[in-house]
Amino acid sequence: MLNIPVWMFMPPYVLPALFTLISATVYLFVFNFFRCPIRHYRGDRRDHVVSSVDGKVVAVEKVYEGEYLKGDAIMLSVFMSPLNVHANWYPVDGTVEYVKHHRGRFFSAYLPKASVENERSTIGILCETGQRITVRQVAGAMARRIVTYARKKQRASIDEHLGFIKFGSRVDLYLPVDCEILVKIGDVTRGGLTPVAKLR
Predict the structure, then answer these.
(1) In the β-sheet with 94-102, what is the strand arrangement from edge to edge?
(2) Whether 122 contacts 136, CB under 8 Å
(3) Measured distance CA(185)–CA(88) in Å, rounded
(4) 51, 77, 115, 169: which is the annotated catalytic residue?
(5) Which residues contact residue 171 at a Cβ distance below 8 angstroms, ignoring those fewer than 6 apart?
(6) What are the Cα distances from residue 198, in Å, to 131, 157, 188?
(7) Rounded mean pLDDT of 114-142?
(8) Closest Cα partner for 78 from 119, 143, 138?
(9) What is the pLDDT of residues 168-199, one digit of tens each?
(10) At 33, is the secondary structure helix, strand, or coil?
(11) Does pTM surpass 0.90?
């Protein structure tokens, strides 16, 4: 809409053309960012943990998860840049047992302290194997709003969206310590499609 008056009242044509190019670039960026593609996982759904997001693996380490699992776990973190799709998928099939949103700060999502100090939502899932995992949506320096679709006692499915984080952020998966990790730091993942771990 803004391009019409610009073309009408701002000759010569160089300035309106430049303005149109900038607005088209912003539009395409926002359109790409807010996409929610439908994806279907074709692998073994019973014991595979699938990436919740598009992005890059930035951490794989043993930590203590005291909110839902209340014990040691393997934390696998995937960082999303502003260029990634920011829809979030369930990493396993199962049942949602726990959902809680935490207000917090907005440190860079790359920092380790972001998992416990930033704005975040925690989702606890009972897998069909009987094991439990935690999914944590973490806001970053740019992300200012986390949307969580998951609800307690709701069915979780790898093919369905768990939520959405608006602009650069990360998602942490807390997995059983005896699981087999299938990715390494620096690997690129696709939400709902890339297996990241195998439950034993």
Answers:
(1) 155-156, 94-102, 120-127, 132-139, 169-175, 71-80, 55-65, 188-189
(2) yes
(3) 20
(4) 169
(5) 52, 53, 55, 77, 78, 80, 88, 135, 136, 137, 138, 165
(6) 12, 16, 17
(7) 89
(8) 138
(9) 688 999 999 999 999 999 999 999 999 999 99
(10) helix
(11) no
CA 117 from centre of chain: 17
Residue 169 annotated among the catalytic residues of the structure: yes
CA 27 to chain centre: 22
Question: Residue 23 and residue 173: Cα distance in Å, rounded?
Answer: 37
Q: What tokens appear for 115 in the block?
A: 């998992």
| Residues 191, 192, 194, 196, CA torsion sign | positive
Sign of the Cα pseudo-torsion (159, 160, 165, 169, in order): negative
Q: CA-CA-CA-CA torsion for 31, 186, 199, 152, nearest 10 degrees?
A: -40
Both structure tokens of 43: 């692998």
Q: What is the pLDDT of residues 68-82, one digit of tens each?
A: 999 999 999 999 887
Q: Which tokens in the block code for residue 48?
A: 């595979």
